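Follow-up to my post from last week.
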Amino acid sequence: AQSVTQPDIHITVSEGASLELRCNYSYGATPYLFWYVQSPGQGLQLLLKYFSGDTLVQGIKGFEAEFKRSQSSFNLRKPSVHWSDAAEYFCAVGAQNQGGKLIFGQGTELSVKP
Amino acid sequence: DTGVSQNPRHKITKRGQNVTFRCDPISEHNRLYWYRQTLGQGPEFLTYFQNEAQLEKSRLLSDRFSAERPKGSFSTLEIQRTEQGDSAMYLCASSLGGTSNQPQHFGDGTRLSIL
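User reply:
Got it. Predicted complex:
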Protein backbone atom coordinates (compact mmCIF):
# COMPACT_ATOMS: atom_id res chain seq x y z
CA ALA A 1 0.00 0.00 0.00
CA GLN A 2 1.08 3.54 -0.62
CA SER A 3 2.32 5.53 2.34
CA VAL A 4 4.06 8.80 3.04
CA THR A 5 6.31 9.52 5.99
CA GLN A 6 7.34 12.93 7.17
CA PRO A 7 9.81 12.15 9.95
CA ASP A 8 9.88 15.63 11.47
CA ILE A 9 6.71 16.69 13.24
CA HIS A 10 8.03 20.15 14.12
CA ILE A 11 11.02 22.15 12.86
CA THR A 12 12.21 25.56 13.96
CA VAL A 13 14.59 27.61 11.84
CA SER A 14 15.87 31.14 12.05
CA GLU A 15 14.70 33.67 9.51
CA GLY A 16 17.15 33.76 6.63
CA ALA A 17 18.41 30.24 7.28
CA SER A 18 18.02 27.40 4.83
CA LEU A 19 15.30 24.80 5.18
CA GLU A 20 14.88 21.16 4.27
CA LEU A 21 11.73 19.20 5.04
CA ARG A 22 11.94 15.45 4.60
CA CYS A 23 9.46 13.21 2.86
CA ASN A 24 9.73 9.49 2.18
CA TYR A 25 7.16 7.52 0.26
CA SER A 26 6.36 3.91 -0.34
CA TYR A 27 5.00 2.93 -3.72
CA GLY A 28 5.84 0.28 -6.26
CA ALA A 29 5.80 2.38 -9.40
CA THR A 30 6.74 5.95 -10.18
CA PRO A 31 4.49 8.09 -8.06
CA TYR A 32 3.13 11.54 -8.57
CA LEU A 33 4.50 13.67 -5.72
CA PHE A 34 3.25 16.91 -4.27
CA TRP A 35 4.05 19.39 -1.54
CA TYR A 36 1.25 21.47 -0.04
CA VAL A 37 1.31 24.20 2.60
CA GLN A 38 -1.47 24.93 5.07
CA SER A 39 -1.86 28.01 7.23
CA PRO A 40 -4.00 27.75 10.39
CA GLY A 41 -7.70 27.43 9.62
CA GLN A 42 -7.08 27.40 5.88
CA GLY A 43 -7.08 24.86 3.10
CA LEU A 44 -4.02 23.49 1.36
CA GLN A 45 -2.06 25.42 -1.23
CA LEU A 46 0.01 23.58 -3.80
CA LEU A 47 3.72 24.46 -3.63
CA LEU A 48 5.07 22.14 -6.33
CA LYS A 49 4.60 18.79 -8.02
CA TYR A 50 6.64 16.05 -9.66
CA PHE A 51 5.33 13.74 -12.35
CA SER A 52 8.31 12.86 -14.51
CA GLY A 53 11.40 14.32 -16.13
CA ASP A 54 13.79 16.61 -14.32
CA THR A 55 14.06 15.39 -10.75
CA LEU A 56 14.59 18.89 -9.37
CA VAL A 57 11.34 20.82 -9.49
CA GLN A 58 10.75 24.45 -8.76
CA GLY A 59 7.66 25.73 -7.03
CA ILE A 60 6.09 28.89 -5.78
CA LYS A 61 7.46 31.11 -3.01
CA GLY A 62 11.06 30.08 -3.74
CA PHE A 63 10.62 26.41 -2.81
CA GLU A 64 12.14 23.50 -4.66
CA ALA A 65 12.09 19.73 -4.20
CA GLU A 66 14.21 16.89 -5.46
CA PHE A 67 12.91 13.45 -6.35
CA LYS A 68 15.39 10.69 -5.47
CA ARG A 69 14.10 7.34 -6.62
CA SER A 70 16.92 5.38 -4.95
CA GLN A 71 16.00 6.86 -1.58
CA SER A 72 12.23 7.03 -2.16
CA SER A 73 12.42 10.64 -1.09
CA PHE A 74 11.03 13.97 -2.17
CA ASN A 75 12.51 16.56 0.17
CA LEU A 76 11.44 20.17 0.11
CA ARG A 77 14.04 22.93 0.31
CA LYS A 78 14.27 26.66 0.50
CA PRO A 79 17.57 28.55 0.62
CA SER A 80 16.37 31.40 2.83
CA VAL A 81 13.28 31.19 5.01
CA HIS A 82 10.99 34.15 5.61
CA TRP A 83 8.81 34.62 8.68
CA SER A 84 5.73 34.23 6.46
CA ASP A 85 6.78 30.65 5.66
CA ALA A 86 5.68 29.53 9.13
CA ALA A 87 2.91 26.99 8.44
CA GLU A 88 2.20 23.26 8.19
CA TYR A 89 3.72 21.46 5.23
CA PHE A 90 2.34 18.26 3.76
CA CYS A 91 3.90 15.83 1.34
CA ALA A 92 1.47 13.76 -0.72
CA VAL A 93 1.67 10.92 -3.22
CA GLY A 94 -0.74 9.93 -5.96
CA ALA A 95 -0.68 7.36 -8.72
CA GLN A 96 -2.12 6.71 -12.13
CA ASN A 97 -4.13 3.72 -11.00
CA GLN A 98 -5.45 5.39 -7.85
CA GLY A 99 -7.96 7.67 -9.51
CA GLY A 100 -6.12 10.76 -8.47
CA LYS A 101 -6.69 10.41 -4.74
CA LEU A 102 -3.77 11.61 -2.66
CA ILE A 103 -2.12 9.95 0.31
CA PHE A 104 -0.75 12.57 2.69
CA GLY A 105 1.98 12.47 5.28
CA GLN A 106 1.14 13.66 8.77
CA GLY A 107 2.76 17.01 8.14
CA THR A 108 5.68 19.06 9.43
CA GLU A 109 4.98 22.22 11.35
CA LEU A 110 7.51 24.94 10.57
CA SER A 111 8.23 27.71 13.05
CA VAL A 112 10.46 30.64 12.10
CA LYS A 113 12.53 32.49 14.71
CA PRO A 114 13.18 36.19 14.13
CA ASP B 1 -10.83 31.31 -11.30
CA THR B 2 -12.72 31.86 -8.07
CA GLY B 3 -11.26 28.83 -6.34
CA VAL B 4 -12.96 26.02 -4.47
CA SER B 5 -15.64 27.26 -2.12
CA GLN B 6 -16.89 25.41 0.95
CA ASN B 7 -19.84 26.23 3.18
CA PRO B 8 -20.26 26.58 6.02
CA ARG B 9 -16.76 27.33 7.30
CA HIS B 10 -17.63 26.14 10.76
CA LYS B 11 -20.45 23.91 11.99
CA ILE B 12 -21.21 23.20 15.64
CA THR B 13 -23.83 20.60 16.38
CA LYS B 14 -24.96 18.21 19.08
CA ARG B 15 -24.16 14.54 18.92
CA GLY B 16 -26.81 12.63 17.03
CA GLN B 17 -27.78 15.46 14.71
CA ASN B 18 -27.39 15.38 10.94
CA VAL B 19 -25.15 17.84 9.13
CA THR B 20 -24.60 18.70 5.48
CA PHE B 21 -21.65 20.47 3.91
CA ARG B 22 -21.45 21.98 0.46
CA CYS B 23 -18.54 22.27 -1.95
CA ASP B 24 -18.44 24.34 -5.12
CA PRO B 25 -15.45 23.32 -7.24
CA ILE B 26 -13.57 25.37 -9.78
CA SER B 27 -16.01 25.59 -12.67
CA GLU B 28 -14.09 23.70 -15.35
CA HIS B 29 -12.93 20.92 -13.01
CA ASN B 30 -14.73 17.64 -13.47
CA ARG B 31 -13.11 15.78 -10.56
CA LEU B 32 -14.12 16.52 -7.00
CA TYR B 33 -12.63 15.01 -3.85
CA TRP B 34 -13.56 14.96 -0.18
CA TYR B 35 -10.95 14.55 2.55
CA ARG B 36 -11.11 14.56 6.34
CA GLN B 37 -8.38 16.09 8.49
CA THR B 38 -8.12 15.62 12.22
CA LEU B 39 -5.90 17.70 14.47
CA GLY B 40 -2.21 17.09 13.90
CA GLN B 41 -2.76 14.79 10.94
CA GLY B 42 -2.67 15.03 7.19
CA PRO B 43 -5.87 14.88 5.17
CA GLU B 44 -7.38 11.42 4.63
CA PHE B 45 -9.20 10.55 1.43
CA LEU B 46 -12.94 9.94 1.76
CA THR B 47 -14.42 9.83 -1.74
CA TYR B 48 -14.21 11.31 -5.20
CA PHE B 49 -16.40 12.06 -8.19
CA GLN B 50 -15.77 12.31 -11.87
CA ASN B 51 -18.59 14.52 -13.08
CA GLU B 52 -21.67 13.15 -11.30
CA ALA B 53 -20.33 9.62 -10.86
CA GLN B 54 -18.95 8.64 -7.46
CA LEU B 55 -16.01 6.48 -8.43
CA GLU B 56 -14.42 5.53 -5.15
CA LYS B 57 -15.27 5.53 -1.46
CA SER B 58 -12.80 4.98 1.34
CA ARG B 59 -13.53 2.48 4.10
CA LEU B 60 -13.44 5.54 6.35
CA LEU B 61 -16.77 6.53 4.82
CA SER B 62 -19.18 4.64 7.04
CA ASP B 63 -22.84 4.19 6.16
CA ARG B 64 -23.61 7.36 8.13
CA PHE B 65 -21.78 9.35 5.46
CA SER B 66 -23.16 10.07 2.02
CA ALA B 67 -21.91 12.30 -0.74
CA GLU B 68 -23.59 13.48 -3.88
CA ARG B 69 -22.70 15.54 -6.88
CA PRO B 70 -25.87 16.13 -8.84
CA LYS B 71 -25.33 17.35 -12.39
CA GLY B 72 -21.59 17.17 -11.89
CA SER B 73 -21.31 20.63 -10.38
CA PHE B 74 -21.41 21.27 -6.64
CA SER B 75 -21.20 18.44 -4.14
CA THR B 76 -22.69 17.80 -0.72
CA LEU B 77 -21.39 15.64 2.08
CA GLU B 78 -23.93 14.56 4.68
CA ILE B 79 -23.21 12.96 8.01
CA GLN B 80 -26.14 11.35 9.79
CA ARG B 81 -26.33 10.73 13.54
CA THR B 82 -23.07 12.54 14.20
CA GLU B 83 -20.64 11.14 16.75
CA GLN B 84 -17.82 12.74 18.73
CA GLY B 85 -15.30 11.10 16.42
CA ASP B 86 -16.71 12.97 13.45
CA SER B 87 -15.20 16.21 14.75
CA ALA B 88 -12.68 17.20 12.09
CA MET B 89 -11.97 19.54 9.21
CA TYR B 90 -13.68 18.38 6.03
CA LEU B 91 -11.79 19.48 2.94
CA CYS B 92 -12.99 19.53 -0.63
CA ALA B 93 -10.68 19.63 -3.63
CA SER B 94 -11.18 19.70 -7.36
CA SER B 95 -9.05 18.99 -10.40
CA LEU B 96 -9.21 18.56 -14.12
CA GLY B 97 -9.96 14.95 -14.95
CA GLY B 98 -8.51 12.66 -17.52
CA THR B 99 -5.25 11.84 -15.83
CA SER B 100 -4.35 11.43 -12.21
CA ASN B 101 -1.45 13.83 -12.25
CA GLN B 102 -3.57 16.95 -12.35
CA PRO B 103 -3.00 18.93 -9.15
CA GLN B 104 -5.87 19.21 -6.73
CA HIS B 105 -7.01 22.63 -5.62
CA PHE B 106 -8.38 22.76 -2.09
CA GLY B 107 -11.05 24.83 -0.44
CA ASP B 108 -10.64 26.30 3.04
CA GLY B 109 -12.63 23.47 4.57
CA THR B 110 -15.57 23.08 6.92
CA ARG B 111 -14.64 22.55 10.55
CA LEU B 112 -17.16 20.32 12.32
CA SER B 113 -17.39 20.41 16.10
CA ILE B 114 -19.60 17.88 17.88
CA LEU B 115 -20.79 18.91 21.34
